[in-house]
Amino acid sequence: MTSIRTGFNNSPLGDGGIVIIGAGLVGSLLSIYLSKRGYKVKIFERRTDMRKEKISAGRSINLALSDRGLLALEKVGLVDEVKKISIPMNGRYIHNADGTTVVQPYGKEEQYINSVSRATLNMLLMDMAEQHGVDIFFEVKCTAIDWKKNAITFESGTSHNQWMVEADLIFGADGAFSAARLQHQLQHDKFDYQQFYIDCGYKELTIPATANGEFAMHVNALHIWPRKDYMLIALPNLDKTFTCTLFFPFEGEQSFSALDTKEKVEHFFNETFTDAVALMPTLSDDFFNNPTSALVTVKCFPWVREDKFALIGDAAHAIVPFFGQGMNCGFEDCRILDELIQKHDHDWAKILGEYQILRKPDADAIADLAVNNFTEMRERTADPKFLLQKKIEAKLHEKYPDKWIPAYSQVTFNPQIRYSEALNQGQKQEAIMQEVMKMADIENEWENEAILNNIISKLQI
Ligand SMILES: Cc1cc2nc3c(=O)[nH]c(=O)nc-3n(C[C@H](O)[C@H](O)[C@H](O)COP(=O)(O)OP(=O)(O)OC[C@H]3O[C@@H](n4cnc5c(N)ncnc54)[C@H](O)[C@@H]3O)c2cc1C
């Protein structure tokens, strides 16, 4: 086995250097932050270079990028580039089972989230990383880490050759099923680890552009077909298509395993997603060609080893996608870490120590918020009572902008509010609203000044 030392001249780490495992969204952004701070960084990525490959069907997921992610991109000067490849989505466009539709704005008029292609964003970040002097090596998989030497064993994807890379500082940015995290866990006395799957999986489907080359539905929205135990969503792409994602039980009467023929798929979609199916000419092919994937939450601790190693992004905290925050949270990890480099003047024992103390409660909070939001999206967005509750909350926010910020807005549009604060505040607000919604004639009385004042006064209790 060959041993390589990642030596660097003029690096704040002296002779040593930084190795990032994984050139996904978070690893690539992290490398830009670190190189801007003067470090020479190498990234080792298991996959081939996606800039040279055609992306396979069913893996072209687009993502909702919101203010936390944008703030992290802005700090490294990338926000304008990323906005060019994004489509604003101002609200949820709900497609009810009875054929009616409702638009629910996400926040104030100027507040929106952004649909961005995962692959296009990842490629942009890799290009930028290389422009900042980062070396990215592809088709090399981390298989082991020797913590005494801080040496990582990599295996080449094609030849299965192995070699070792030593580094002063290692980041595990290798996603939800992180090999770096496993190595950390296996050689740690008291490592807390929790992993749980929800009973639904997901599958990507497509709504192509119309024959005239236009979007087939309203473009500036996240479309949702809530159906209680499951839902379909659709986000717009720059090529005028929509990527749909079906979140659906694995087993049961209505489940992936039950839909085992083209006829059953078409019958189910015709009955359940009538307006969508008319726009999906390749539905049954997509359904059987595209993979069905699972959704996992991972919580663990500690995330760091002294001044030598840290987990970041999904490797530290994988969450389900129902708040659209996994990538945003990982990008925020990078921004916070960068602030700590400044604060502790490159003292990595202090930086990593404070990083995990700060980020762990926030990652746990967004993990819980994300699981809860699945119930909200699939069950409650079709409920008129819930829609009224959201209207009242929007009114409260308009009248008392500093006192009542809806939980969704706290998470999505207010990066200065920590996820853990948003969870606490959101729980308090929800308890108050549950009582409000029980009030007699609330449907007609909700704009009454006295009622709104009374709601606000409860926040102080
Ligand atoms: C269906 C779905 C929808 C989502 N929607 C949203 C959304 O709307 N908004 C949002 O903010 N987030 C969303 N997310 C979450 C988001 O995708 C993740 O949080 C984000 O990709 C995390 O980035 P990462 O770089 O930490 O991990 P990843 O993107 O998983 O990247 C990890 C990288 O490490 C590489 N790697 C893995 N193992 C090794 C190894 N042993 N050696 C070397 N390299 C390795 C991988 O090939 C990959 O390139 C969604 C997730 C899913 C599943």
Quickly describe the structure.
This protein is 38% helix and 24% strand. By secondary structure, it is α/β, with parallel strands linked by helices.
- Basic shape: globular
The molecules bound to the chains, other than polymers, are: flavin-adenine dinucleotide
Radius of gyration: 23 Å
DSSP, total strands:
20
Helix fraction, binned, reads 25-40%
Spans of 5+ residues with little confidence (pLDDT < 50)? 7-15
> What is the straight-line distance between the termini?
65 Å
What structural category do the secondary elements indicate?
alpha/beta
Range of strand content: 15-25%
Biggest sheet: strand arrangement: 7-6-15-16-17-14-18
**Mean pLDDT rating:** 92
Report the total helices.
Answer: 15
Largest sheet: number of strands, sense, barrel closure: 7 strands, mixed
How would you characterize this protein structure?
By secondary structure, the chain is an alpha/beta fold. The protein is built from 15 helices and 20 strands. The strands form four sheets. A seven-stranded mixed beta sheet has the order 7-6-15-16-17-14-18. A six-stranded mixed beta sheet has the order 9-3-2-13-20-19, sandwiched between helices. The longest helix is centred in the C-terminal third of the chain and has 31 residues, at 348-378. It is globular. Residues 7-15 have low confidence and may be disordered. The chain binds flavin-adenine dinucleotide (FAD). Flavin-adenine dinucleotide binds next to helix 1, strand 4, strand 10 and helix 9.
